[in-house]
Design goal:
single chain; 54 residues; mainly alpha; rod-shaped
C-alpha cells in the first residue's frame, strides 16, 4: 500500500470516527429535548383542562 492510499484510508477513518462521536453526543441531547417537550405538552394540556372546568 502506497502513501497516498494510507493517507486516504486515514482520512476516511477520521471522518467516520468524527461522525460516530458526534452522533453519540447528539443522541442523549435529542432524548432530553423530547422528554422536556412531552412534559411541556402535558403541562399545557392540564392547564387547558383546568381552565375549561372553571
Amino acid at each position: 500500500m502506497g502513501a497516498r492510499e494510507a493517507l486516504l484510508l486515514a482520512a476516511v477513518a477520521g471522518i467516520l470516527l468524527s461522525a460516530l462521536a458526534g452522533s453519540a453526543r447528539i443522541m442523549p441531547l435529542r432524548a432530553a429535548a423530547r422528554k422536556h417537550r412531552r412534559a411541556d405538552h402535558r403541562a399545557v394540556k392540564a392547564e387547558d383542562l383546568s381552565k375549561a372546568r372553571r
